[in-house]
Amino acid sequence: MLKIAVYGKGGIGKSTVTSNLAAAFAVMGKRVIQIGCDPKADSTINLLGGQPLRPVMNYLREEDDDPETLEAISKVGFGGVLCIETGGPTPGLGCAGRGIIATFALLEDLHLFESWKPDVVLYDVLGDVVCGGFAAPIREGYAEKVLIVTSGEKMALYAANNINSAVKNFEDRSYAKVFGVVLNHRNVEREKEKVEAFAAANGLDIVGEIPRSDDITRYEDAGMTVIQGNPTLPVSQTFFALAEKLFNC
After folding, report:
1. Whole-model pTM?
2. Within its chain, how far is the Cα of 79 from the centroid?
């Protein structure tokens, strides 16, 4: 089972990368789970036809008992991808990171991995602040590979550096390691040069490049990934190439 955590600054495109990777893996014939670990709970929306999924934390707040089945807190989306959103606390109350921890504990109780038997598990994780909760996918051994999504923008690279530092804090415990950097182009000045400098300074590889693409925006406006919209497009091929690299390396 391949377990990947995708981290990046909020708004940098990590959910776009994650959901397109999930779709690519599914088209490749893999059995996939995608778990959104962000209070916004919008990680899986483009795998579900633009329809939001009720987050686990909402379920726990609104129902009298914990869910007894996976079906109560998940939906199957494009290509058979099982979609789950952790969600977060009521806005302004509580710690969002604790929502991830509570969700992971619940998924263990429901025997998610034993019952679903995935080939690939993708965690889409907010990386602005890598607190204990948001570090759970790497700290608790859920993921084995970390992708850091960044552009050449200053704050995106700042967040990427924090994420890399957080992963390194656990590297002596056989937890997840950074597999590489995904450059999600924003067309800023000297963008590739800046990201290459960051990667080189930290001993990392740029393992994927996602071009700035109107096709991604157009298909997301229609509630789907670009993989679903048109898998033959050049931008779609970048996701397939990254999926192949992740699965075979």
Report:
1. 0.94
2. 17
